[in-house]
Structure formats: structure tokens, C-alpha cells
Amino acid sequence: MTGYILKRLISAIPVLLGISVIVFLIMAMIPGDPATAILGSYATPENVEKLNRDLGLDQGIVSRYFIWLGNMLQGDFGRSFALNRPVLDEVTDRFGATLILAGTSFVLCSVFGIAAGVISAARQYGFADKAITFVVLLGISIPSFFLGMMMILIFAVKLRWFPVSGMWPIYGARNFWVLLDHLAMPALALAVVATGVVARLARSAMLEVLRQDFVRTARAKGVPERRVIWRHALRAAMVAIIPVLGIQAGFVLSGAVYIEMVFQWPGVGRMLVDAILKRDILLVQGGVVFIAACYVLFNILVDVAQALLDPRIKT
Amino acid sequence: MIGFLKLLARNRLALAGLIVMGLVVVLALITPLLPLANPDIPDTPNRFKPPFSDGAILGTDHLGRDLLSRLLWGTRLSLAMGFAAAVIAAVLGSAIGITAGFYGGRTDNIMMRGIDMLMAFPYILLALAIVAALGPGLMNALIAVAAVNVPFFARNIRGITVGIAHMEFVDAARLAGMRDREIIAAEVLPNVLPVIVIAMSTTVGWMILETAGLSFLGLGSQPPQADLGSMLGEARSALITSPHTSVVPGAMILIIVMAINLLGDGVRDALDPRLKSGALTRPMPATMVDLQDAPPVATTKSLLDITQLRTEFRVRGRTYMAVGGVNLHVEKGECLGIIGESGSGKSVTALSIMGLVASPPGVITGGAVHFDGKNLIGAPYEVLRSLRGRRVAYIFQDPLATLHPLYTVGAQLVEAIQTHDPVPKSTARARAIDLLKSVRIPNAESRINSFPYEMSGGMRQRVGIAMALANDPGVIIADEPTTALDVTVQAQILALLSDLRRERGLAIIFITHDFGVVGQLCDRVAVMYAGRIVEEGPTEAVLRVPQHPYTSRLIDCVPVLGAGQRRLAAIPGLPPVVDRLPTGCAFADRCDKAVDACRSGDIALNASGLGRKTRCLFPENTVKETA
User: Fold this and answer.
1) pTM of the full structure
2) ipTM
3) CB pairs below 8 Å between A and B: how many?
């Protein structure tokens, strides 16, 4: 297994390089003078010249890429002109909050999505199946930002169950329960669409598996139906579900942008939007590369989970 | 096409989606013609008017602009953006997909690697990066959303194109001297076009949602022009004081996306032939029972007695009578063979006993199965379950498909034991090892940790047998257990079953299409044809002097080793389709002795002496015997 993980890590290197090339090319599309775009139109000529030197803007596009890549590998993602601090510091500071939000949503969408899909398949065309199918349809059709706003209106303003926004109270203690209180609504709002997608896939994967011969074998052994569904069938269906969970992880990670805006959550998503509106290009560039790299690494985890589940995958 | 529309119309939800979407599109199209207030001119004294106030049925927003007007214009813009993004993504993605799929090789490799890289990004992140580079704005958001969706189209279309590029008609076009560009335009494109359209119909909802999302973040349409997303974004600051400004655009997005999703699902269902055939229904824990008349009493006092069993498959209004009134019985320690061609109903008979026929579509419509004097047809699920594997165990045909691929054989054996006997795991494991030894698996202690895919076919079938033996059942039903195996392995498995039967006093019902196997193992044999038993009797006698013409023709089909050159007598014709069984003898159309009487009425399974029964008006060989 260690060998397999190592192999997957090595195979991630070209993907990471590809990501850096794509981000670099996108940023090279910036119209006009990049230094002005990065520093804003009020930049002093000295600063412009310094930046041009730092980024190698006086050189060709290929060497510019390698300068940028080299700097990143040394942990230098550049400096945010709007915040006047290193990009990497700002990104890592913010990333924790996003990780808490997206991680919780990921757990929610996995657990509820799979459970809903399994129940739906086991009770195909029954009441539970129809109810779940309808809720799932509603869930995948509602924009998360609208859902978040409606949740604030109902559960925070009307019912006062949860705080309106933010990650921590302005005054008072910062402990796990306070965090949970603030996390509940945004995590749920972010999880809804992904839950729907997972539930749909889990349902069809389960229907596919339940027709397999080994399910009949389990039944012929006298295994109770509950165990047939939740052990035999679900385990086999997970082979199809896990890759989709990987995709959903990327979805909640990037979809967190909307939720962070709605709930004033201090994560990288909100940082990116602010940076885009302020034309803080280096911050955007660094943030995007960082998140994409994390996602690539997470997908290795997904592959490893798949290999652990399915012994037929050569490790 | 008409059939497709009919299917779509039959799906009421999809139809509702189509109607709602049609209404929204029509509204968006006629918006400029409607007598609406200008959506972009502020009227600050009248800000935040609630819905249903004079002159503004949906109220006004934070600048006093009429919400209805802004909603309709915003819908128009959002729809236009979504559709435009879908078209751009479809055109670019399909161009890449077709090129990569058609040319293959290196072109394919490089292009698809690039696509993979794009897909390595979390979805919206890439769109944000593009907007960051191009700057916020309507067109830039459109480009970003389209770009993010290109990989989806490229991948799907490439897959289809690869298939088409290797078809005969493409080769023919090439031989006819057509150039690549002409082939793509004339042969490939028309074939992938439907797929492109479907992919668009399923993604346009996403794209509307995504462009609205970017606008919501302030990165899409810029004030005063507004789409639904930016309306929602601007309303956010007044969410608590004037919620209607948020609810109106939000609900509209929800309605549009939901309608598109419903429609998309309907389109997909209408096009997926598997759903039409009902193949995607999952079998229930036990076969459905729908008895047409009162269950008969058992005809014998045997361990297992099947009386007048009828099992049907109901598929889309048609009824296939797979088992049409079968009587069978097996005594303690006896081996009964059931033989017949595929489709004769022998497996369905066997699976009906414990309610294991996949249902839907299978339904048991009549008869009784008495085990130890108790009728199992219509018995509660829990009764069936407690007998399954404990008193009546099954061995199935293909052990690779019938063993769970992701559990070790040990785990599966332990489960079989613990299901009916709650012993501790270590005890169950020790017993599992003993079981593996009893089916003569070498190194049972280490083999127990193997996965099914790590074993040979013969070993796997031994595991299947061990699992059936786990709870010392009274009856083992073996459904073609040796069909998937090599001849030598087959012989070993048969010898094993024969020994186990003697050691343990097992009753075996052995289903096969192979007379050789029956001769080796079975005391009695029943021959099935078109869902009914046509002949039954002691194996020796039936094999030596078959009485039913079908049996004798079937035996003639078997090549005899060392019998020299002999023309194998295949039976002309095919078995009848079991949803239109002829009256009278089902074999009549293939039988050279058939007369009118054979086709005029039901023929009984008559006893013909010496424990034999035949369903024939003119049985063979009887004259010889009596003479």
C-alpha cells in the first residue's frame, strides 16, 4: 500500500505542473500591462519596475513561467499589493476556515447522500423513494447562495436558532460548540447540492448492484435483508460512489465561495472574490494554485480509499 | 422521434418541466413588448415597496425599480447567458472531442491530457481564475462558464466519436476517397449531434446556475443591468428588512433550474433503453406471490414436495409462463436431476422454491412447495429467510459472479455460519476452515483469506459448495454448478458432491443440461420442456429407454465417446416462446410423430409403470418394453 501511495504521489507531479501551466496561461491573458494590472493604476514607477524585474516581465513567456514556478517551489507566491503581505501567508491563514466549512459539508453530503440513495434504491418506487427523489430534485435545483440566504432569514432572523453569519462571535469565548453553532447553517447550505448529486448516483449504483448474482447468493444464505442492502450491496456500490465523492469534494471546496460570501465566512473563497474585485492578481493566482493543488492531493486520498475498498485494484 | 416525444409525454414530471420552461422562455422573449417600467431607472422615493403595492405587483428594489420588470429582464438575460454558454461550450468541446476521437493517436493523447488538466481543477475555481484575468463583466463571466464546461463535452463527444470512427461506414467513406474533413462533416457529425444536444439539455441548467453565481458574486453582469444572480447579490444587503427583493429572483432561478432538470431527466429516461425494458428495477428480498387459486395440498410426504408450481415473468404487459405447473418431490438423501435446454424453466423452478426468482419481473402465481410438511409459497419473509441456507441451500452456476467480489471467502463463510448460528467469530472461523477442508481445498488455513478473484474457477465452486454446507442443510439445490467449469474440474466437483451426499445424507436437486452429469450423480431425473415436466423416472431407465420423443431426441444430441462416426441429431426448430404457448403438446411442432390430437388439448403426465411418467400421447419404447 505504501508503494501504491508513493506511486500515486509521483503521478500527481505532472498534474500539478499542468495546473500551474494553466493558471499561468490564464493570467497571461490579462489585457494591458501586467504590472499595472497587478499594482493598480496608482503604482509608483519604481514599484512597477521592481515588479517587472521580480516577475521577469522583461523576459519571454517561457522563462517567466519558470521564474514563477521556481519562486512557488521555494514557498514564494508573491506579495498581495492590496493586503501588503505574502500571498502564501494570507492563503494559509484563510484556508483553515474553508477547510472546516468544506470538510463538514463533504462529510454531510457523503453520509446523507449515500443513506438517501441506498434507502431510495431499497424501496424503489415506494413512498420513501418518491419522497427522496423529489427532495433531491429540489436540492440540486436550488442555488446554494439563495438557499443560504433563505436559511438566514428563517433560522437566524425568524427563529433565532443560529447566528446570522461569521465564524466566531465578535465577543466571547471561542470553543467547539460556538464554532458548531456558526458552522451549522453554512455547512448545510453548502452540502445540499452535493448531497443530491451523491444520492442520485448512489441510488442508481445500488440498483445496478442489487441485480448482481452475489446479492442473490447472500439472500440464498439467509442473510437478513438489511444486511444484504447495507453490507453486501452498499460495499459493492461504493466502488462506483467513491469517485463521485471525489468530484463532490472539489465541488464543495470551490462552491464554498458562494457560502462564504453569504455567511461572511472568513475563508479563501471570499478572499478570492475580494481579490478579483480589487484586481489583486498575485493573490488570486496564488490562491487558485494552492486550492487546486490541495484538491489534487485529496484525489490521491480518494484513489487510496478506492484501493483499500477494492482488492482487485493493483496496488 | 414521435416515439421519443410520446415517451417524454408519458413522463408527467418531464412534461411539467417542459411546460414551465416553455412559459419562462416565452415570457423572456416577449418581455420587450410588455408594458413594463424601465428596469434600470432608479426611483428612490419608492424604494423597497412591498409586493402587491400599487403600480408594482412584486414591489420595488433598493433603488425603487419595479421588481417585476427587473425580474423579467433579468430572466431574459440569465437565460440568454446560460444558453450562450451552453452553445459555446458545446461547439468548442465537441470540436475538441471529435478531433481527438477521430484522429486518435497522438492528437488524441495530447488533447485529452490537456482536458484532464482542466478537470483537475475544482469546478468553479477555474471560472474564478478566468474572470480574475479578464476582469469582472457579463461577457467575461460567460466565457469563463463556457470554458469550464468544455471538458465535459470534449470527453463525452470523444467517447462517442472513437466508436464511430471505427465503424464500417467510415472505412467505406475513406476507401471512397473522401477527405477527413468531409467524413467528419458527412458521417461523424450527424451521428454525434443527438449526443451533443442531450448533453446540452442536461448542462444548460448548470450553466444558468453558474453564470447567475458569478453575477451574484459581483463578477458577472454589472449595474445597472442585472441578471437573476446580480439581482440576488444586490438584494443581499437588504435581506432582513426587505426579503421579497431576494425571494423574487431566487425563486425564479429555482423554477428555471428545476424545470430544466425535470426535462433533462425525462429526456435521459426516454433515451435510456435499459429503463424502458425495466432492467433497472431491483429484485425484492423474496419473489412476489400472487396466487390465482387456493394452494394445493402436498401429493407426497417427501422432504421437499413441489405441487403444481407456476411462476411467470410479467414484462411490460406480457406474461411469460416460465414454470407452468410443475410437480416434483425429493426424498431425504436422494438426488434428483432436472434437465432441459436453457429457457425450459428448470432454474426458475429451483429458484422459486426459496423465493429467489428476481421479482420484478418474476411472480409465483400458483402451487405449493412443502418443505418438512410446511408450505413455503406465500410464507412470511422471515420464515423463508430462516430456512434459506439453514435447511435449504443453493449452489449457483458462475462462482465468480455469485461470490461477493470484495469480501474474502473466509468472511463470506463466517457470515453464512453466523447468520443462522450466533457463535463467536473465532468459532465460526474454525468451522469455516473445516468446511474448506471438507470440500478438499488445500491449505485451507491460508486460503480462507483469499478473495474470490484470486482463486481458480474450480476452487471458487468448492467455496460455493462449502458455503452451502455451512449449516448442514437437508436439501442442496445446485443450479448448473459445473457448467462454467473445465471438464476435468467438473468431474472433481461431481465426485465431491457425490461423496458429500453419501457422508451427510444430503438431498440434492441438481439442475443441468448435461445428460452425462445426470447419469453420474442422480437417482431420478425429470426432463423439462417449455416450463413443464415431460418425462420423469429413475435415471438409468430414462437414459436407456426414453419414452418422450423430446427426451430421446435430446439424448441423441449427446456425442458418445468411441461410438465412431455418427451424425449428431440436432433437434430442428426452436422451443416455443413461453408467452404464447400452443395448446396441447409444446413439443408438437418439432416432433415428427405429432398428429392433430397432440395439438388439441392438454396432455397429462401419465404414469407408465416402474416409477416413470411421460407427457405424451404416443410414448416411445413402451411397446418394446411390454412386448
Assistant:
1) 0.87
2) 0.89
3) 229
